[in-house]
Design goal:
Helix content is 46%, strand content 13%. By secondary structure, it is of the alpha/beta class. A three-stranded parallel beta sheet has the order 3-4-5.
């Protein structure tokens, strides 16, 4: 029991130490928000962990709505969770763009929900071939405004 407690605490500490924002995230979110774009966050995971990550990132203020799968009861790629977020944002699927780094969860789920999709293809991260075909592909968040604005 003592080792389990120590390992759990080590994990929580290291997770916080290693959490880092994607380069340019704050600037891009600010630019989109200033342009009047409604911004939502959809994430899979345990509510306490995901809410803590949102809070400690300093980016929570940019999101008009945030949905965590562990609070909703189903996660990406289920279209229901995408529709739930869109409802909170007051946006129709055809008016929305899902941006994500997972073809299997973000892009496939966004497509199933009737959204346009943008895959953030990150170097060093492998994705299953043919998982989903995005409408757009970018390699950094700095490319996003040319698609959205």
């Amino acid at each position: 029991p003592e080792l389990a407690r120590e390992l759990g605490e080590f994990f929580r500490t290291r997770r916080r130490e290693l959490q880092d924002r994607m380069p340019g995230a704050e600037e891009i979110l600010h630019k989109l928000q200033a342009a009047g774009v409604r911004i939502g966050l959809l994430t899979n995971g345990a509510p306490d962990l995901q809410r803590e990550k949102i809070e400690t990132s300093g980016l929570g203020m940019f999101f008009d709505a945030a949905v965590v799968s562990g609070e909703f009861g189903t996660g990406k790629p289920s279209p229901e969770i995408f529709h739930h977020l869109l409802g909170l944002l007051g946006v129709a699927p055809a008016e929305a763009l899902m941006v994500g780094n997972s073809l299997a969860r973000d892009i496939a789920g966004g497509k199933r929900a009737g959204m346009r999709t943008c895959w953030l293809e990150l170097a060093g991260e492998e994705e299953p071939v043919g998982a989903a075909e995005p409408d757009f592909t970018i390699h950094s968040l700095g490319e996003l405004p040319r698609i959205v604005l």
